[in-house]
Design a protein that fits this description.
alpha+beta, Helicase, Ruva Protein, domain 3, Tetrahydropterin Synthase, Chain A, 6-stranded antiparallel beta sheet, about 45% helix, about 20% strand
Length: about 325
């Protein structure tokens, strides 16, 4: 029988907001599998939707750079938030963002690229680790480009110009003026930073994710005890709502919370008397997908002294 520890129950509670006993039962029903337990709780209606990005933990900065009709995003991580305020670290993020405009999404190519002050990007990063005294990593990069139009950037929680906790690029194609595209792009980028869409449109949503959501919706609908044809309609309705709320073009614009983003773009094009199409976007949130273990000083001291013990749930 799988042992369910208090730490595991605590983690499930933090990720779902469900009660302790419900979390314990969910883990017991799923042999301690965290993701399966989350789905079990959701199917039972005992948990809010799982957080899209999970608990983010890595520190550092996301940097953006735009040149003409091309934009780049990079994420550089550090151990503590303090380093993100370091001028040397910020200068590195600024330079790497510019270099990424040329190297594109390939992180290995970016690391191997020449650094302006000499050596490669990776060698400069190694030097920064030695001089700043804290581990750092160049985690990822992404670029967007349009043939005609503009790529617009936005940084949320900026620590310095063009760098902060969340970075967004928006690619707008069309014949509208640069000022029109810049203003529209900025608003859409702010929406993306806040709403965190999972894809541009419903067709772009991950198939495995949709299958998982349908399974959860089906399990939840079955709990109602309604006839099969009603359950089928309930599941279809739930999935339609999920797609609408998670695809950028169908999301309600955060500026008024009533107009779909697609209609916002169409209205801007009509007002400008020109063509505008929202072609793509990129969003980096600092540390998304990276888990950081909570620090328990007392437990660390106990472990160092060899007195720590596993804490099972009674």
């Amino acid at each position: 029988m799988t042992e369910i520890t208090a730490a595991t129950v605590k983690e499930l509670r933090e990720r779902t907001g469900a009660g302790m006993m419900d979390c314990k039962k969910a883990l017991g029903e799923t042999a301690g599998n965290m993701e399966a337990a989350i789905d079990w709780l959701r199917a039972k209606g005992l948990s809010a939707a799982a957080k899209k990005a999970g608990r983010t933990a890595a520190e550092g900065l996301v940097g953006v750079a735009v040149s003409g009709s091309k934009g780049a995003l990079v994420e550089v991580n550090s151990e503590t938030d303090f380093v993100g305020k370091n001028e040397q670290f910020q200068e590195f993020v600024r330079e790497v963002s510019q270099i990424a405009l040329t190297t594109g999404d390939d992180i290995d190519a970016l690391k191997s690229a020449a650094y302006p002050s000499g050596g490669t990007v990776e060698e400069k990063l190694t030097d920064n680790i030695a001089t700043i005294g804290e581990n750092q990593s160049l985690r990822r990069a992404a670029t967007l480009e349009v043939a005609q139009g503009a790529v617009v950037s936005y940084v949320h929680n900026a620590a310095a110009p063009n760098m902060g906790k969340i970075g967004v690029l928006v690619a707008l194609e069309g014949s509208a003026s640069a000022d029109t595209l810049a203003a529209l792009g900025k608003q859409i980028a702010m929406h993306i930073a806040a709403a965190n869409p999972l894809a541009l449109d419903a067709d772009g949503l991950d198939r495995d994710l949709l299958a998982r959501e349908r399974s959860i919706a089906t399990d939840k609908a079955n709990e109602s005890g309604k006839p099969a044809e009603i359950i089928s309609k309930m599941v279809d309705g739930t999935m339609a709502k999920f797609k609408k709320e998670n695809a950028l073009l169908s999301q309600l614009f955060v500026m008024d919370n009533k107009t779909p983003v697609a209609d916002v773009v169409a209205q801007a094009a009509k007002d400008a008397g020109a063509t505008i199409a929202l072609k793509a976007y990129k969003r980096f949130q600092l540390g998304e997908g990276i888990e950081k273990k909570d620090s328990d000083f007392a437990a660390e001291v106990a472990a160092a002294a060899g007195t720590a013990k596993a804490e099972p749930v009674a």
